[in-house]
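User: Teach me something about this protein's shape.
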Amino acid sequence: MRRMVHLVPIVVGGYHPPAVSSNPVAAQFAKLDELFAHYPILTLVHIVPGLLFMLLGPLQFSSTIRARHLRWHRWSGRVFVICSVVIGISALVMSFGMPAIGGFNQAAATTLFATFFLFALCKAFWYIRRREIALHREWMIRAFSVGLAVATIRPIIGMFFATSRFSRLTPHEFFGIAFWIGFVLHLVVAEAWIHATPPQPETEGAPIA
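Assistant: First, the predicted structure itself:
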């Protein structure tokens, strides 16, 4: 939401360079905002569907909603998948079309996991069309977990910023590390959750599309 509030005026009224801060930490954060300010439309294409992704994703895994509101589950699932595809494709475009704060290391992480994210979505869609509910569930968990990783990457980056005076690492050095930690951690948790919670028989199953 903060990023949207910052970028919408730029799309409407054009870009105006901000005042330079004398605080080195504030200057680092301003530099991050500056990067996205140069690509406002692409960033909004990525983060606006991301808001729906965050809101609809948890509801897709609710057995109560599937059992009582199956039609809503199907339609929200379609919206969720469309938003997810936009997020994944725009993430790949950003990886290749925007300078990465963390350089090649960050770009490699976002490219790999954005590709896997889209692959997981395709697998989930394929299995639900074939009414293979258990496999659909597994791949949806993987896709949602990887998409949600960005929420974990933020505090990891914050921890790197907070300890940078001791570690002497710059954003260019630790951004890529933070992305790898966040994505891998979420994928490991997703696999653990899949194996720890086998699907229960229920009336969950209608395809989302």
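Now, about its shape. The radius of gyration is 19 Å. The mean pLDDT is 87. If you'd like, I can walk through any region in more detail.
User: That's plenty for now, thanks!
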